[in-house]
Amino acid sequence: MSVAEVRSTAEQKMQKSLDAMKTSFQKIRTGRAHAGLLDHIQVDYYGSMVPLSQVANVTVQDARTLGVQPWEKKMVQVVDKAIRESDLGLNPATSGDLIRVPMPPLSEERRREMTKIARGDAEHAKVAVRNLRRDANEQLKKLLKDKAISEDDERRAQEDIQKLTDRFVAEIDKLLATKEQEIMTV
């Protein structure tokens, strides 16, 4: 394995950590409705659990309402139940074959809880990025020990990995600040 491969692998894994954080941020409910909010909900579809997006069309009807239109008439009750039992605290209303999911306004206390959850997700992402830095540095030390690279090359590569880590941590902080602003906006 070369220095470039170590860096490339670390960068790809750090990007995956960032993407995982973005995905978890999408699950955090703000006062506004967005279609991605229901993405993680699993629905019982003929005995197997599938994502909601595979059995229904999710649309944003207005700023505080989602519309869920199951593709099969008999799935309406199943989808309604799945949304009701999810961890989002939503209370859908069914009218015919359309399920309306109103977003209740968040209380100040609930907004603060959501902010804490977002901070926790961001901290997990930072820890993952730092662990990837440590792994990359260990691989570089192994290359040095095996005399595949010089000490100067190892030092330069470690500095490069550190810059990469700093860049991803800064990106995580920026995304967290944006999400906190979004949550606290009434």
UniProtKB/TrEMBL annotation:
> Which sequence ranges form a coiled-coil region, renumbered to this chain?
122-167
Residues in Ribosome recycling factor domain copies:
22-184
Database matches in InterPro entries: Ribosome_recyc_fac, Ribosome_recyc_fac_dom, RRF_sf
Q: Name one GO cellular component term.
A: cytosol
GO MF annotation, one: ribosomal large subunit binding
Q: Which Pfam families does the entry mention? A: RRF
* Superkingdom, natural source: Bacteria
Please state the protein's primary subcellular location: cytoplasm
Q: Which UniProt keywords apply?
A: Coiled coil, Cytoplasm, Protein biosynthesis
Where does the record place it? Cytoplasm
- What GO terms describe the biological role, i.e. biological process, of this protein? cytoplasmic translational termination
Record's function text: Responsible for the release of ribosomes from messenger RNA at the termination of protein biosynthesis. May increase the efficiency of translation by recycling ribosomes from one round of translation to another.
Q: Which family does it belong to?
A: Belongs to the RRF family.
Protein name (database record): Ribosome-recycling factor
Q: Which organism is it from?
A: Zeimonas arvi
